[in-house]
Design brief:
By secondary structure, the chain is mainly alpha-helical. It contains two helices and no strands. Helix 1 runs antiparallel to helix 2. The relative contact order is 0.24.
Length: 68
């Protein structure tokens, strides 16, 4: 039984990504005027969600390969 850090990292990034996506969707667009109207919370949330799913997929693939 080995320690695979990819699964907890993936879970954390998925949770934080979902929080950022929800925050980006529910906030007033006027606060993004200083950033050239780019909803940076939404974009970084999507990036974190994709990275978290990727890490979780790698962890699940590694656990399936280690089975006898």
């Amino acid at each position: 039984m080995g320690l695979d850090i990819r699964l907890p990292i993936g879970i954390i990034f998925v949770v934080y990504g979902l929080i950022l996506i929800v925050f980006g969707l529910l906030t007033d667009p006027a606060i993004f005027a200083r950033s050239l109207s780019v909803n940076i919370d939404l974009w970084w949330g999507a990036a974190m969600l994709i990275f978290g799913l990727f890490m979780g997929g790698l962890a699940l693939r590694a656990s399936r390969q280690n089975r006898p």
